[in-house]
Amino acid sequence: MLGLFDSGVGGLSVLRAIRARHSDVLTWVIADQAHVPYGERPLEEIRQFALAQCRFLFEGGAEAVWMACNICSAVALEDARAIHGASAVQGVLQAGAQAAAKLSRTGRIGVLATDGTVRSGAYPSQIRRLRPDASVTTVACPEFVPLVEAGRLDGPQTTAAARRRLAPLIEAGCDVVVHGCTHYPFLEPALRSVWPPELPVRFVDPAQALARRLDPGLRRGSDPHTGTELFTTGDADRFRVQVEAFLGAQAEGVRRLCWNEGRLSVDPVPASDLVWARGA
What we know:
This protein is α/β, with parallel strands linked by helices. The protein has helices at 10-21, 43-59, 70-84, 92-103, 115-120, 122-130, 144-149, 156-171, 188-194, 206-211, 236-247; strands spanning 2-6, 27-31, 64-67, 89-91, 108-113, 135-140, 176-180, 202-204, 228-232, 255-260, 263-266. The protein has a seven-stranded mixed beta sheet with strand order 4-3-1-2-9-10-11, sandwiched between helices. A four-stranded parallel beta sheet has the order 6-5-7-8, sandwiched between helices. Helix 2 crosses helix 3 (70-84). The longest helix is centred in the N-terminal third of the chain and has 17 residues, at 43-59. It is globular, with a radius of gyration of 18 Å.
């Protein structure tokens, strides 16, 4: 079983990438919506959130855990690996940096990220380790996560935000732009709509790169439509609606998790399993 977590619906973009390639892998997904967005929180606080979610997933039977959150990958990956094993925990940030370094023709790479990920300096560090000649431009996008959580994937407000945040990357002549937050792939149509057509660009979704490296030995289920358990620390009904909107899957039950002294536990109220709609 694979466990993954994010501060909110960004984890669903990672789940989408997994389902596209490995529809039968048993998966647990946590959305820590009690604390979304992570971007402006202290880095040590985010590290503690990440380690607690790793612990919950491994104690629940996960064979591997993906940090489906770039800032968690930046500040907590090595600590989690020290506890659970180097091969047991993967981060989307590292996968995104590798893909960007490989795909860029010019070495001019842009990263759209949360404020915390930008503050960590992790993307420039990771990319330049792989490609010393790279010129990396990082841009903090504080409005992107709230827009996605609210389901505002298009419209004047979203278009204006996309144009504002892409401007420095366009000016730098970037030929690769990394979605440095797993919420951001849901905004890619809006981002593409304002990117100049005369400037070729490739958008990198780190989840796609990570999904290509999924361990083939993970436990799998007999029915791809019932192989996922979804959890949220926020409003379960709201998250159910978000799942249906972002993934086109009918979510008949979402389990709610409760934070208690830095640890997670399942709300005792019974919840049915997530049921995937036909064709989802």
